[in-house]
Structure formats: structure tokens, C-alpha cells
Amino acid sequence: MYMRIRRGMMLTLMLSVFLLSQNAICEEKPLWEAGVGLAFLHMPDYRGSDENRFLLLPYPYLVYRGDILKVERESISGRIFKTDRLLLEVSFFGNVPVDSSKNTARSGMQDLDPTFEIGPSLNITLLENRQDHYKLNLAFPLRAVFSTNFSSLRHEGWVFSPRLTFEKTDLIPESGLNLGISTGPIFADSAYNRYYYSVEPAYATASRPSYDAGSGYSGSTLTIGLNKGFRQLIFNAFVSVDFLQGAVIEDSPLVKTKNSVMSGFTVSWIFLKSAKLVPAER
Question: Does the predicted TM-score (pTM) go above 0.70?
Fold first, then answer.
């Protein structure tokens, strides 16, 4: 029961990364919006795992478009500096816990606590066409990673994950359908990779030799999503693929597949919003 609660809490944080914004470029939107949503997810236990779970997750829907603090479906961030082309912000991410008793590769090993990540991100707008409603961004997030059992906190290393993101609103004219494509490599230090992929001698078996994970290139990701709003409802669908070929951890006995796929569909219902309007890109 406790593992399910922790998984649900971290999924709520992680899910925000995959939900696309339905804002047209420079369109005015309410300063804040509130609602609830339901997500249908199919995801691996961790990157490189060949065991997957189907999850049904309710989540709060919160949007705040302030000058400093910005809470959206795709991020939670605190803005430090912004120009027309550059944005320096503090961003967050999270990963769900893993119950080792339910994962064959990790059987007999300690459970993995949920992790959350926090750190600065420099975002650069490479291209923006307001007439045709598309934008190309490049982000450089560097985040410290912490694991928690909600009674203690441990630093588990650092992750650097540059991302190239293409956004196209109103993909089919007058349809209100929006497209988002994001891709990039992941670089992690040895502390982070050890948390997920090392096998200590005490947990080694004939089929799971001891392994000490190193630092460096740790794979890449590609995420594609579609979004559409209809009255008070917002629909999102996405698929995200991890590629571990050539990664420093690909020889870990805990890596059972070089390609991990996460997919999902969400429905959000907005039932409260402010009367004050602000630019959606504020």
C-alpha cells in the first residue's frame, strides 16, 4: 500500500513533463486554471526494464502563468532571467519507485525509492513563426537528483539532459490540434547510474553478476505528443521512447532491453479559472 502511494505521488510529478500545452503562440490565457484529470499509462519499471505496468492515475490539474513562478502541464519552474530568446529557470522532474519483489531482474534487491530532480535550465528559442504557429526550442537542464522514502532524503547524483523541442499549434488549420516533439541525450554521473543499474556483490547471482555503473552518456529519449482542447476538457496522448544503445550502463544485468517505451492518454477537466488574462507565453 505504501509503495502504491509513493508511486502515485511521483507519477503526478513525472506526468506533468509529458502533458503538452494547448496554448497558441502569444494567445491570451487565464492567469490561473484549476481542475482534475485522469491518466491511462503504460510504462516500464525503469529505463531498460523489460517489465511494464498499466496504471490508472487521477491527478490535480493546476496552471499558473506568473512572472516568476510558472506551473504548467509540461513543467513546474521558477524563472530567474528571461529575454525574447533566452530563459533561465529552475525546473523539476521525478521518477516513480520500483518494488523489486515485482521485477524479475531486481528480485531480492532493495526497492528503489522515488526520486525527484531540481536544477537550473537554460532554454533558447531557436526559431519562432507566429504566423504559422510553430516554435523550435533548445533546453539545457542540469538537475541534482534526490531519492526519498518521505522520512529521509538522499542525494543520488546529477543528470544533464539537453532537449530539442518542436511545437506546432493548430496542426490542421482550424482543428485546435497541437503537436509536440522532443528529443535529446541524457548524461549522468556514476552516483546516479549506480542507484539504478549497479549490482552490489551481496545481490549478485549466477544470472545477475555484480556490476558497478560508471558515468557518461546514459541513452537518449524521443517524445511525441498530441493535444486538443474542447470546451472545458483537454485531451493529451503521447509516446516516449528511451534508447540505451551505446550507453555506459547498457551492459548492466539490470538492463533487459535497449528500447523502453512509455505511452499514455490523459483527460483533464478545468472547472475553475481566473478572470484576469495574460499572454500564454508569459
Answer: yes
